[in-house]
Design a protein that fits this description.
Length: about 120
């Protein structure tokens, strides 16, 4: 198996709107190349986009563990936890990503989680 060609196919399939198909191609590549962050990140995004949140979380935690300065991995991990309704766990990752890189979508995610927690802590 040509891993690079399979990665390119998986990227094309992901970008074409088929995250499940992309994940099926990416899983053996991650198994063969466990330290390849780009492949692992795309697999995490494919899991996120196909609502496989536990699998996305597992991949993203490995990325964050390997490179704690990866703002994007922190952001997507926070978004994954947010999507799972785990706002309290999401907020530190979302804040860290926003502190590392000023991007509107990062700041929006922080505000969303803070708002949700603020409204629901009073209940």
């Amino acid at each position: 198996m040509d891993l690079l060609e399979e990665y390119r196919r998986a990227t094309f399939i992901f970008e074409s709107g088929d995250p499940l198909g992309a994940a099926r191609l990416l899983e053996p590549i991650v198994e063969a190349e466990p330290h390849n962050a780009a492949v692992r990140q795309l697999l995490a995004r494919a899991y996120f986009n196909s609502a496989q949140l536990k699998r996305a979380e597992a991949q993203l935690r490995l990325l964050v563990e390997h490179d704690p300065s990866d703002h994007y991995a922190h952001h997507v991990l926070g978004r994954t936890l947010e999507r799972a309704g785990r706002f309290r766990e999401a907020l530190p990752h979302l804040r860290l990503a926003a502190a590392m890189k000023k991007q509107d979508d990062y700041l929006d995610a922080v505000r969303r989680a803070e708002t949700w927690l603020g409204k629901n802590e009073a209940v």
